Amino acid sequence: MEKAMTLEQQDKAYVLQTYARNYIHFVRGKGSVLYDEHGREYIDFASGIGVNSVGHGNDILTKAICEQAKNIIHISNLQVIAPQAKLAERIVELSGYDMGVFFANSGAEANEGAIKIARKYGEIKFHYKRYKVITLEHSFHGRTITTVKATGQAKFHTPHFSPYPDGFSYVKRIEDLYQAIDDETVAVLIELVQGEGGVQPFEKKEIRALASFLASQDILLIVDEVQTGIYRTGEFLASNLYGIEPDIITLAKGLGGGVPIGAVMTRHKEVLGVGDHGSTFGGNYLSMAAGLAVLEVLEGLYDEGKIREKVFYFSTKIKEIAQRYKRLFEKEVGIGLMRGLRAKSTDIQGEIIKRSMDEGLVVLKAGRNTVRFLPSITISKDEIDEGFKRFEKVLDTL
Ligand SMILES: *Cc1c(COP(=O)(O)O)cnc(C)c1O
To answer: Residue 155: is it exposed, middle or buried by C-beta count within 10 angstroms (0-12/13-18/19+)?
Structure first.
């Protein structure tokens, strides 16, 4: 009899190999601690790329999912879905913006929805159609053909997948946007803190100036909050932190606490009508129950001032490390619980990430040689301490 395949062999034999995967096998998690198949524990400073916003095994979230699954998991959008209406209301209320919400299943899909809203706006509001969308270099907006084209990183625009849709262009800096706009421009799409591109925040002043300029020109401001949303920056939305009121906002990662979800919200509620957009899974009972539970947990923490405390504690630690290990890092970047350390080289970045895993700490990489930290919003002081203890141990070996 042939020997059974290992998990790694099975993965390599049957799963399309689109990821440079690590074969550590996590089987369980509690809070910001993960356990692998050998029972070894890891501190989780990645939270599934900013997804597990309430940590692993959160009682309120898991209970909500289980209860909902027992009653009804899915019914189509042809019927009204009570938790969908409720979650849309919660998101709108927490944001403070007078918007309507459409639910999708991922960040890329949310951005697709945003681009569709913008394109139709450009069609119905102007005599000559406006359809062009300008984005920024180092941005990341998703992996569908359109959102990959919206992503301002040439390496993603491989000819393998061409032709790409027309109407996307990129600028280096916010200040270059003013020149790039023409009379066919319908929208500017930006992240307020570029996540994948290196945890790079923009200045509040330049963002506010841009927002008022775009409003004066009737050009839509789309803010991709797939990574920055749901208290990641310390406020419910990064748009709240920056004090702007975008035309369209997209959400995904942290909203479902790990259950696939995406959302696009807009002030221009009248643009999309019946039949313009849809999704089979989007807004179903299970993901909506998860979203409601996540917001219940995080809203409570926010109101008690706990998120602010965690942000302060985490940033103090990371600033200390940036100071102490100047030989390895250029600088510290990011805001809230979305932080990074810019390594002096790609090699240093790679070694730190690899050795951290060996030491029992999960951290992420991001563009511009950044070691990225996206802990769950519920991470405890002890978990932060233990994580940085391990991190320093790694840095001392380099
Ligand atoms: C992760 C991410 C996306 C893509 O989300 P998916 O759920 O992977 O489609 C889009 N925009 C930003 C800013 C992201 O961080």
So the answer is: exposed
Using the CB atoms, write b or e for 260-283: b if 16+ within 10 Å.
bbbbbbbbbeebbeeeebebebbb
CATH number of 7-57+305-395: 3.90.1150.10
Cα–Cα dist 259/105, whole Å: 9
- Bridge-partner residues for 103, per DSSP? 263
Q: DSSP for 249-273, please give it.
A: EEE-GGGGBTB--EEEEES-TTSS-
Count of CB atoms within 10 A of residue 215's CB? 15
Q: What residues flank ligand 1, with Cβ below 6 Å?
A: 106-108, 111, 140-142, 191, 195-196, 224, 226-227, 252-253
Give the pTM.
0.98
Q: Where are the domains of the chain?
A: 7-57+305-395, 72-303
Residue 1 has pLDDT above 70, yes or no: no
**Residue 181 in tokens:** 């706009």
